[in-house]
Amino acid sequence: MTTDSRSAPTTPSSLPKPLLTERQEARRRRILQATTRLATRGGFDAVQMREVAESADVALGTLYRYFPSKIHLLVATMQDQLQQLHETLRKRPLTDEDPAARVAQTLMRAFRAMQREPHLADAMVRALTFADRSVSSEVDTVSRLTTAIVLDAMGPAGTSGPPTPEQLSAVRVIEHTWHSALITWLSGRASIAQVKIDIETVCRLIDLTNPNSPR
């Protein structure tokens, strides 16, 4: 079975997308659930557009209208996974007093969720890596969700206003490190212990960029 990476014609991702009706949202949910099942069993190559359509009980043309390619589909799946994680973290927030420690623990919780389903994690990360400009809107959403998770874990960090530019820069570096750690672990080039050390190390940037922390 070959990888189906063809894209159907679609409107540019930069155009605003109309709100989905309840029925359309339910259909989209079935598509994402089918994608998750296939990726969990067989990884990136197991996610074929025709198989997804059959598993979700939608026409192939309908699937392409929702997701122009498997890259769009898998990036949207990662977005969905992060949204679920964000909701879980908000219901059960960490209580460590140190913002850097909270962020490190949060990212390790996310990492361990990926670790439980390595085929799914590999499929989603590969899709992010392969994504081109046509998927920029979906990739941006994944980035915004990751940023929101990190900022929630940071908390106010001793400031009454929004994060400073330095703090946002630190968050971006933390996100890059987390993504890189996922890739090196999935490729077998890093152990869980090494990932934990790298995450804890980069999260120290939070203390360095907190204007109220002693230098």
From TrEMBL:
Q: Where is the DNA-binding region?
A: 48-67
Q: What does the UniProt keyword field contain?
A: DNA-binding
Which residue windows are coiled coil?
A: none
Q: Where is this region: Disordered?
A: 1-23
* Gene3D superfamilies xrefs: Tetracycline Repressor, domain 2
Domain of life of the organism in this record?
Answer: Bacteria
Q: Where is the sequence biased in composition, kind Low complexity? A: 7-19
InterPro entries, alphabetically? Homeodomain-like_sf, HTH-type_TetR-like_transc_reg, HTH_TetR, KstR_C
- In this chain the HTH tetR-type domain maps to 25-85
Q: What is this protein called?
A: TetR family transcriptional regulator
Q: What is the species of this protein?
A: Streptomyces blastmyceticus
